[in-house]
Design brief:
Blueprint: E1 34-35, E2 38-41, E3 49-53, E4 59-64, E5 74-80, E6 85-88, E7 94-98, E8 103-105
Antiparallel strand pairs: 1-8, 2-7, 3-6, 3-8, 4-5, 4-7
Amino acid sequence: PAVVTILATDKGFESRNCGTWTQHLAAITNSQTKFGNGIFIVGTDMVSGTYKSTGSSGCYYARLSGFSGNLNEIISNNNTDTAAIVTIAATDKGFESRNCGTWTKQ
């Protein structure tokens, strides 16, 4: 799953192999305290708190202040090949995870 903000100043939007995009922002997770890969909305798809991943080689995760894709919206991020622990603040807008296994709220 992915979330993107298209700004009024953007000239276009391109995606490949992403399925159908919608403006409907209802929860996409079955659990707000356990999830895998994707881009998630804090407070909708997941709750804030401290999470631990099961770990996997090539794991990347990021706390986000928005979804436009600008690098300045990365609050903090990390790459690791082992289990990771991250605290997601209630003020964070989103969380991105790739190849990290399953995240579980501690």
